[in-house]
Design brief:
It is a single chain. By secondary structure, the chain is of the alpha/beta class. The chain has one domain: Purple Acid Phosphatase, chain A, domain 2 (4-Layer Sandwich), CATH 3.60.21.10. Helix content is 25%, strand content 19%. The protein contains 5 helices and 11 strands. The strands form 2 sheets. A 6-stranded mixed beta sheet has the order 5-6-7-8-10-9, covered by helices on one side. The protein has a 5-stranded mixed beta sheet with strand order 4-3-2-1-11. α4 packs parallel to α5. It is globular. The model has no long low-confidence stretch (mean pLDDT 94).
């Protein structure tokens, strides 16, 4: 089975309470871990599209990553907008977290299913979208392209992971959607949206791709079966 859950927002230091987003965030780490251990087996794959840890440095994030590593199943992780600890794959792989695959400009294969992705970026019609945002948007689009290019050719399915939703504020698909369409992506999961942001969630079949939001509070801190 393949499951998805994003925005774990783990905090080993306990300095970043998440209940500013609502009472349902109280004890959210415990909820995630309990639901995970009840549902996931070592044969399963869990996709985590960003915002894993509040840590600022990789050595600080290690404690949170170690918790994820010790949970059942294999995990594929992509970068979120709050993952400031994210460094080169060489440095992250040096942590020897044997159940975690850090996905960046590449892909991961699981039972003839290819997993691709990038962080994505906020939509171009967002308020205050700057020249810097334009550069970041295009860089993430290129990273998704590199990831898609790395697939081995004819998988049974392609599942894409994005942190930011690949839609404009008016709910229309953006360039990330059309790039995924070119490569015949089957499913795209994303996160990032919390609390009032849930009103921007789009879950539908669009351009031949099934879109699912797996932000942890949107799915009640319970990994969602993707495939």
């Amino acid at each position: 089975m393949i499951y998805g859950i994003g925005d774990l927002h783990l905090d080993y230091s306990r300095e970043k309470p998440m209940d500013i987003f609502g009472e349902n965030w109280v004890g959210h780490e415990e909820k995630i871990f309990e639901n995970w251990e009840e549902k996931i087996t070592d044969e399963d794959l869990v996709l985590i599209p960003g915002d894993i840890s509040w840590a600022l440095k990789l050595d600080q994030a290690y404690n949170d990553l170690k918790k994820v590593n010790e949970l059942p199943g294999k995990k594929v992780i992509t970068k979120g907008n709050h993952d400031y600890w994210w460094e080169s794959k060489k440095k992250m792989n040096s942590l020897e977290l044997d159940t975690i695959f850090f996905l960046q400009n590449d892909s991961y294969s699981y039972k003839n299913i290819d997993i691709v992705g990038s962080r994505g970026w906020k939509s171009k019609d967002s308020e205050g979208f700057t020249e810097h945002d334009e550069k970041m948007y295009n860089r993430e689009l290129n990273r998704l392209n590199l990831s898609l290019n790395s697939t081995r050719g004819r998988p049974d399915k392609i599942i894409a992971m994005l942190h930011y939703p690949p839609f404009n504020l008016d709910s229309s698909p953006n360039e990330f959607v059309y790039l995924m369409k070119e490569y015949n992506v089957d499913i795209c999961i994303y996160g990032h949206l919390h609390s009032e942001g849930h009103r921007y969630v789009i879950e539908d079949m669009i351009e031949g791709i099934q879109f699912l939001c797996v932000s942890s509070d949107y799915i009640d801190f319970n990994p969602l079966k993707i495939y």
